[in-house]
Specification:
The structure is a single chain. The chain has about 290 residues and is mostly helical. The chain has a single domain, classed as Hypothetical protein af1432 (Orthogonal Bundle), CATH 1.10.3210.10. The chain is built from 17 helices and no strands. α7 packs across α14, α7 packs across α17 and α9 packs across α12. It binds fe (ii) ion (FE2) (2 copies).
Length: about 290
Amino acid sequence: MDSAIDQLPLALRAEIDELPTLPAVVSACLDELHDPRSNSQRVADLMLADVGLTARALKLVNSSIFALYREVTSLSHAIALLGSARLEEIILSVTLPQLFGKGPSGTLVKRIWEHSFATAFMAREIAVRVGCTRPADAYVAGLMHDMGLLVEARCLAAPMRDFLKTTADHPEWNLQAERQAIGADHTMVGIALADHWGFPDGVREVISYHHAPAGHGDPVAIIHVADRCAENSGLAIRELEPVTAEEFDLTAWCRTVLPSSLALPDDLDLVAGSADWAGQVRALVQELIHIG
Ligand SMILES: [Fe+2]
Ligand SMILES: [Fe+2]
């Protein structure tokens, strides 16, 4: 059977092939973090061997989104304050933008990053509130769910902009129209990218089904909701207006799209709707992403 990348148009295949694979130090850290016998000091030691990775991680930890109220100057201090469970989120948050490197500039690329980080933070928040044992999985899946769009925006910017323009009036994302315009949709491209970087099946499942979560379990449902929360707060890939809690009943909407097994809290709007949240995400992306 063809692998995911073989089903993509040539330009998208070439774009993915040219992206670096995960650096060895990052893979080693992730393996260690997934090992039940791991300890945070070993991960910190691995990270410290890469000065750039450590510096970028500390910069992220000190950004306003983590709201630590005091400067963190070492990895061990960061682990003490945040817990080692967040290391995976931090490592991937600072690594993925590096892997894409300096690419085409423009509003679309920036919006995709803002939306991706917003969805990751929201997914993590939801996962914590519904009692998931590994909220980091939700964060990583949130960060990755639309990465296929980033690949498309980098190499097929013009058809991508046309597609976004022609579907701007539709609240739901139209995967079929995307396939007609681009030759593939971002779930297909995202899977090929997840394969390229060796992400686990859980991330691949979220990428595949985040626009149609019915029957695909809680992780997919969580990203579906986080995706909508990010959009409602104005961190959307398309030019959608922010939606207030009065205009959109998130809890009622969740009941229609989610498995009844997933008991979401009633106050999700509080996070995405808080006045400075979207601004914090934008500021973070400004810091982390090298656009242009
Ligand atoms: Fe998507
Ligand atoms: Fe999305």
